[in-house]
Design a protein that fits this description.
single chain, alpha/beta, GMP Synthetase, Chain A, domain 3, 3 domains, three-stranded mixed beta sheet, globular, disordered N terminus
Length: 314
């Protein structure tokens, strides 16, 4: 650091805890790595900066923008560091994660008390799979081991900007990393088999009876948003922690819409359309045949609601 007399001074970065015991003559400062803020002393806790401007010189610094750095393909057009050279990012940026909030730390803290570095129980496999990378949003293990010692583990990557469900092609490397991470923490006779979550594409048709004088357009939009949120793999489900892996979907589940959208008086009918193995390029499910009242995820892990039709009944 250079002071206003042009003399060089050496400053040492320390933690907030160390700052509490630093004398007024100590040359110290704290660094907030998230916000990129340097905080110097006040003369009581650490030495004050000398008077004047331009008295702090930082030779090298790096900026980590967290989740906002996960840009979509073709978003980068100019790169200042290489002059006038045209730059195009063919693949999206990924891996950036924002710092944990206090609420997230409080939610995660209990699991740290029981976390082990060996995958033995079902919860061990799930916790260690999530710890393998910040790109893993959720993980599930059925707890069963076959005759060859294989244990199946499913991971759901965080979705990138603009995605409804994660792109499996871009997540292959994450799967391999989690597999290697788990393998090094398993018993010698156990072989974890990690795979990415598979989605069952469905269409949904719902008929509602509304309360008098309800705004049909607003209710239709609210109902479509509610259904998408309810089936969302990240924030959906009955507990708001993501639709459960391999969870069965019933037509009766949508009756809870009455509690959350005041204008809805009754959910008159619900039709669920399984689109697996069908040509889904343009035709809605309700034009391909009759729907069902329940769907199970036999060969899939989670639902993806492609089309949602909301109708109003008498």
């Amino acid at each position: 650091m250079e002071n206003d007399q042009g003399e060089q001074e050496e400053w040492t970065a320390i933690s907030d805890a160390d700052m509490l015991v630093a004398g007024k003559n100590d040359l110290v400062f704290t660094v907030d790595a998230v916000e990129g803020v340097l905080t110097f002393g006040n003369g009581i806790r650490g030495k004050m900066l000398p008077f004047g401007s331009n008295n702090v010189l930082v030779d090298i610094y790096r900026v980590v923008v967290g989740g906002s750095g996960n840009i979509s393909p073709y978003d980068i057009e100019v790169c200042d560091s290489v002059g006038t050279v045209d730059v195009i990012n063919l693949l999206p940026g990924n891996g950036g994660r924002d710092a944990e909030t206090i609420a997230q730390i409080i939610e995660r803290a209990p699991s740290l008390l029981t976390t082990r570095d060996r995958a033995v129980t079902t919860s061990d496999f799930e916790l260690i799979a999530k710890e393998a990378s910040s790109e893993v949003a959720r993980a599930a293990c059925n707890g069963r081991m076959d005759a060859e010692g294989k244990v199946s583990v499913i991971i759901l990557p965080h979705r990138r900007k603009g995605e409804v469900i994660p792109n499996t092609f871009l997540s292959e490397g994450l799967r391999d990393h989690v597999s290697s991470y788990l393998q090094s923490r398993c018993l010698i006779n156990v072989q974890p088999v990690v795979r990415l979550a598979r989605f069952l594409m469905i269409d949904i048709s719902i008929t509602l009876r509304l309360r008098p004088k309800s705004n049909i357009i607003q209710v239709r939009e609210a109902a479509q948003t509610w259904v998408s949120h309810f089936l969302d793999p990240y924030v959906g489900g009955l507990d708001g922690e993501g639709w459960p892996f391999s969870g069965r979907l019933y037509a009766q589940d949508f009756a809870r819409m009455v509690l959350e959208i005041p204008e809805v008086r009754h959910v008159m009918s619900v039709q669920l359309f399984d689109l697996s193995g069908k040509d889904t390029r343009s035709v809605p499910g309700w034009e391909l045949g009759s729907g069902e009242e329940e769907l199970s995820l036999r060969d899939f892990d989670l639902f993806y609601a492609r089309r949602i039709r909301i109708q109003m009944g008498d």
